[in-house]
Amino acid sequence: MPIDAPDTLLAGFPFPFVCEGWHTSMSLQIFVIELLIDFLTYFSFWLLLVFCVNRFLTMINALKIVTIVLWILAGLIISGATLIASDSNNIFYVKRPFDIDIMDTGYKFVWQKTERPDYYKYHPKQKKE
């Protein structure tokens, strides 16, 4: 959570690369370096896992229908991400231009409600009486 905007939640693992925009609703702030590092981390993990399984455990022979379904799924995900990223209200930064204070971490599925952490629980001295 940014120091100056305590109600902002950031998303991404291992580095937070996206948060809501402060200038208008339904906009995002996207941090490109963090996004690329996250993407390379995920890609490297799955590449290494598939390589090790294919090389040392069993040869992977995917059925043609499975390959087609995976290509369609990947295309839909890339199309959706492109549609979201192409919104003219989004702001892209090369690097995050503000400091953050990590108050809470965790994972929630998209359909689960995300509770915002109580700022004053982590900073009790700043609570107004």
3D structure, described in words:
This protein has 129 residues and is an alpha+beta fold. 5% of the residues are buried. It starts with 9 loop residues before the first strand and ends in a 7-residue tail after the last helix. The protein has helices at 32-57, 64-85, 119-122, and strands at residues 10-11, 18-20, 28-31, 91-93. Strands 1-2-3-4 form a four-stranded mixed sheet. The protein is 40% helix and 9% strand. It has a domain at 10-99. The chain contains three helices and four strands, in the order E-E-E-H-H-E-H. The longest helix has 26 residues, at 32-57.
Shape: elongated
* Strand line-up across the major sheet: 1-2-3-4
Number of helices: 3
Q: What's the overall average pLDDT, rounded?
A: 83
Give the gist of this structure.
The protein has 129 residues and is of the alpha+beta class. Helices cover 40% and strands 9% of the residues.
How would you describe this structure in keywords?
3 helices, four-stranded mixed beta sheet, 40% helix, alpha+beta, 129 residues
Q: Layout of SSEs?
A:
Layout: E1 10-11, E2 18-20, E3 28-31, H1 32-57, H2 64-85, E4 91-93, H3 119-122
Parallel strand pairs: 3-4
Antiparallel strand pairs: 1-2, 2-3
